[in-house]
Amino acid sequence: MAGYNALALLSILASGRAFAPAAVGGGRSPTHLAAETLTFAKTDARTGKPTGTSFLPAEAVERASKGNPIEKAKLKKDGTSAFVDVYEYAAKLRAGEMTWEEVEAADLNTRLKFVGMLHRDKRTPGQFMMRLKVPNGIVNADQMRFYAECVEKYGEEKGVVDITTRQNIQLRGVKIEDAPDIIDGLHARNQTSFQSALDSVRNMVGSPLAGIDDQELVDTREFCNALNDLVSLDPVTNTRGNPMWGNLPRKFNIAVSGSRDDYAHTHINDIGLVPTPHAKSGAMGFNVVLGGYMSIKRVAESIPSGMWIPADRESVVTLSEAILRIFRDESERKDRQKARLMWLVEKYGVEEFKKAVIKEVESYDRGVKVEDAQPGPTGAFERRELLGVHKQPQAGKSRVGVLVPTGRLSVKECRQIADLADEYSGGEVRLTVEQNFILPNVEDDKVGALLKEPALNGNSRMKVNAGFIEGNTVSCTGAHFCGLALIETKAHAEAVAKKLEDLVTVDRPIRIHWTGCPNSCGQVQVADIGIMGGPARKLNEETGKMMAVPGCKIFVGGRIGEDAHLALDPYATGIPLEEESLIPELVKILKEEFGATDKKQRKRDKLKKLVGLA
Questions:
Q1: Which of 516, 533, 551, 561 is labelled catalytic?
Q2: Which of 43, 388, 575, 598 is least surrounded by Cβ atoms within 10 Å, i.e. has the fewest?
Q3: Phi, psi dihedrals of residue 554, rounded to the nearest 5°
Q4: Is 558 assigned a catalytic role?
Q5: Residue 490 among the catalytic residues
Q6: How far is CA 312 from CA 59, 214, 225, 281, 369, in A?
Q7: Which one is catalytic: 202, 251, 340, 430?
Q8: Has 498 been annotated as catalytic?
Q9: In what order do the strands lie in the sheet with 545-556?
Q10: 607: part of which helix (H) or strand (E)?
């Protein structure tokens, strides 16, 4: 890795506001001196890069030193060089010089998250989920095959690949000794896992229809790639891992919407860029919304910032950098539940935060102008579907959306997708926040052959023409791998969706989201019906007593798109998770709230039930 020379180091530190101004009047206290020493002197001898901490002003370092345990851990051992430790640990593990249990605890369960490696200690001890960065959710056939190769050795139960609610990829079952080969393979394919977890800017979400949409307002691909490079590409060494953003107070989410459909879900991101033309000039730009997030303590919908920027690369990157700098240096370092952007915006007040951002943007002297928010569209608009076959504006081409139940992919399914992409879409695959995928640019005269492919028919889980319920089911990881989850979600979600399809008919897509715990990684508050793991009790017929059983809360009425709305209050609580209790409750909700009707059974299906074959 190329080292930082002195001039480059000074340049990048200065641009990151690393040097705090001297206190007005008098000398600095020993605390300030200690903090300043930490700020100026912290470089990693192994990488030649400055640490993430070195970019913080003295005041932020001081607050971090008195902050929560994770803040103190980051000061003690910077996360930006964690990838070096991964390589060193892996070498020792391969040589038999240590076991995974001997890896330093803080590294094992916290610090390696900066490399995208999350230890699943409660479910699969010694094995990790590795989260990638897939800007705009675009992958290719070679990458899909590589994912399969990475996890195949861990077996069908543990070695799986997940499509996430941020258009991202997670590899499951990964062991430390195998991580260097995976990291090198990702980098060779222009992908990375660096700075994808813990206190980092997460995957850049964009429109899955970018460049192939006749109602597109903005092609989001360039912006997602530029923002991904801003936060995870070192501008000095041109290597992955940008120390400038290596010590944020908390995770940070950015979404760039490309159309009125808002496939990126800007309303639940820290920064949401909503495409809006300028009222006077007609120039395309973005209204900026801020502060949307979900957590165990609070769920907040993003709020208008009052800002508009032109839809050009420089403006998007500069505005995002300005907001990130303010967030990094000024946000909470003690209470992690209050270390999200919304809390900082509320502390400032929206108008004052706007002024602070504009001042920051102007200080960069890049010619970027932030204007007042522009009026949004007022005409009627109906959000379009992503699954199924749809014509593209390109003559003779179509996009084909394919269901992946709950986003869970086996090694075989990854390779099947790669083969389909090579055959029909020029090797390209688009991931969606609904955990499905799209094959773009399919020649119209090949669509029929694609729809007959064995990978999309028969006993295959993947399908093009999915039902309105199964095609819109989303799920978090659940208790299979996640130690925070109160219930298993993915298996239940897939099974329940199929049964609901058999029981009722609905006349529109019904989005059912599952999440294992109140952290709401499954985003239940945005769903038509959201199912969150929680306590429940049920009568034990043998003892005659009420017994604790796996259960859930149910949320109803979330919305996405232009008219987005979060359902914050549970519709029902304490519902046992077993199907004999949950299914009737869901059928009732579907009928009462969404107009579902009982499905008419064919005569042969009735006969099968009568003779016990169904």
A1: 516
A2: 598
A3: -125, 130
A4: no
A5: no
A6: 34, 20, 13, 15, 11
A7: 251
A8: no
A9: 473-475, 512-515, 529-540, 545-556, 572-576
A10: helix 603-610
